[in-house]
Amino acid sequence: MLDRDLFWADNQRVHTCRHCGNGVEDRFRFCPWCAVPQRSKLVEFFAPHPDVPTDAGRALRVSRYFASDERPPQLRFSIWSGDSADAAVSVTEEEAARLAEFVAPTTRRPFFDQLRDSLRL
Ligand SMILES: [Zn+2]
Description:
The strands form 2 sheets. This protein has a 4-stranded antiparallel β-sheet with strand order 3-4-5-6. Strands 1-2 form a two-stranded antiparallel ribbon. By secondary structure, it is of the alpha+beta class. The chain folds into 2 domains: 1-39, no CATH class; 40-121, no CATH class. It contains 3 helices and 6 strands, in the order H-E-E-E-E-E-E-H-H. The model has no long low-confidence stretch (mean pLDDT 86). Bound molecules: zinc ion (ZN).
């Protein structure tokens, strides 16, 4: 049986989008009505390689800061040991895109090869 109090508590966590003014559930990172980010930053942790013993207990934290009046958009990379950061650096969105391409290159076939296959030539 559904716990009604818990159900309503979960569904009442809604705030107003600062851009369009529509209601947005707190769990959403972006407004479903206008797509504006609802948080000033997003954070993800990445685990170390399990087969590299010297990295046990460490993690890579990447924080994505959205543009604001005080700060340009940026991505901040930090290496964490336990509950403190050993080092950190912020990069521009362009450098982050270059990093993403370096880490996971997109495999694009040349345009004419795709066209030739599409036309079955
Ligand atoms: Zn909105």
